[in-house]
Amino acid sequence: MPNKHQNASKISRRNFVKFGGAVIAGSTLNIPPLKNAHLSQEETEAKIKEYRVLGRTGFKVSDISMGTTRMREANVVRYAYDSGINYFDTAESYGNGNSEKMIGEALQFMDRKKVFITTKLHFEENATKEELLERFTKCQERLKTDYVDALYIHSASTVKILNHTGFHDAVKELKAAGRLKHTGVSNHGPRGDGESMEKVLCAAAEDGRFDLMLLSYNFMNKEEAEKVLAACKKNNVGTTAMKTSPGMLAVSPLDPDNLTKDQQEYLDRIMKRGTSKEKAMARLKRRVNRQLASYENSKTFVEKHGIKTQDQLRKTSIHWVASNPDMHTTCVSFSSFDMIDMIVPVSGVKLSAADQQFLEDYKLVFNAQYCRHGCNNCVSSCPHQLPVSTIMRYAYYYEMQGNEKLAMEKYLKLRDKNASLCFDCSAPCTASCPHNLDIPVQLTQAHSLLTLV
Ligand code: SF4
Ligand code: SF4
After folding, report:
1. Per-residue confidence at 35, pLDDT binned at 50, 70, 90?
2. Ligand (nearest to CA of 395)
3. What is the DSSP pairing of strand 180-187 with strand 148-153?
4. Minimum-distance ligand 1 atom for the alpha carbon of 440
């Protein structure tokens, strides 16, 4: 496919100043307005400093890569490329193909050989080779590329799906036609009654047919992922990290005249069962106090480290992941130029002792607030088999990734198997959480977040 603009002007903040709102000749890209013009040159020149060999693909990949679940415009992809990022992750399902379209648009301004483009297909057991080929063809059309570097099985939740004949037959055909180079498997924990990330991805690494793994990994959730990394290292499989920062739900104090959505919902549900408003309010108060008490330690933490924003945690968490050489690239869902400027400077830089200490303290303080991605320890003790970590992951999409629509759509798909069941439950699940999470509190908060009244 022709690459029209390999020598075109690079996308940078300075270009935005120069072109301000105009349209680049020969392209359909509307140049967005200048953001953060106050930044110094040093701050604006975020550049990738380290590239690592992506397992047996042999491709030298930037240690920070770009995920596109939150992407809203192709120029952000171009900006990432100009900062040295050369691995772009998308999926058929991201924005119903829009993410692929934006990468395709940006790709026309890149040197195709210098970038690694991955996409993903999610499918069930009954998918046929023909269906997968047809879907891949559409992905490729949106990406506007002659070949895709890697096709992942999206969110593979069982070992069985790794042997899907239709998928492997389709891959064989695509590789023979030069339309696909590699395959991979992504997993961020079980869906429904699926198997653990460790089980699925270790099996995939040993399988021999998959060259790449995309897995959840952060400083609070590392044991399982590090077993997967060891299996990948042994088999020379390329590794990409996602969900690199733990997400937390905020707790609001109780103001009886100004209840939050989840507090009001909790109150309504109790009163619907015939409890008086006074008693229901007293119960709500006890619940909120319990939540606040568990967050009390965080004050010391915030003061000690001078925390001002969630971004501070996000940046240091990503830095921690990128510091592990066995994780070849750390995929960050970039949604803005500012975020690229904030994160890319960690590339190739050693994590400082102060940052290590920050993460250690954080772990201690928030241990009982973070539901681990990929964990399913408590599912069997829930009479409804609620997918606890999946629901909390959707809350993470909402809170940490700002992806409200996606989060709510996914939550809706759980139908009646959702966290509304936790409002009236004695919570037998709680005893099975090794991290002592207050599961009903966390899930009912997530439910309120992810549903419309
Ligand atoms: S609180 Fe009850 S319904 Fe909710 S996850 Fe725990 S056991 Fe299941
Ligand atoms: S609540 Fe605890 S046991 Fe349940 S999925 Fe989350 S971390 Fe695992």
Report:
1. very low
2. 2
3. parallel
4. 1
> What proportion of the chain, given as a percentage, has pLDDT over 70?
82
Question: What angle is formed at CA 402 by the lines to CA 267 and CA 444, rounded to 5 degrees?
Answer: 20
Whether 256 is covered by a domain: the verdict is no
Q: Is residue 273 part of a domain?
A: yes
Expressed as residue numbers, the domain containing 106 is: 46-243+308-346
Q: For residue 173, tell me if it sits in a domain.
A: yes
Q: Atom 8 (ligand 2): residue with closest C-alpha?
A: 375
In terms of domains, do 151 and 236 share one?
yes
Distance CA 291, CA 253 (A): 9
Ligand 2 mutation pick, 375, 392, 442, max ligand atoms within 8 A of CB: 375
Q: What is the pLDDT of residues 213-252, one digit of tens each?
A: 999 999 988 888 999 999 999 999 999 999 898 765 556 6
Q: Contact, 318 vs 330, CB < 8 A?
A: yes
Ligand 1: centre distance to CA 442 (Å): 10
- pLDDT tens-digit profile of 355-386? 888 888 888 777 888 888 778 889 889 999 99
Characterize the bridge pairing of strands 212-216 and 180-187. parallel
Q: What is the pLDDT of residue 184?
A: 98
Residues 145 and 206 in one domain: yes
Query: Is residue 392 in contact with ligand 1, taking CB distance under 6 Å?
Result: no
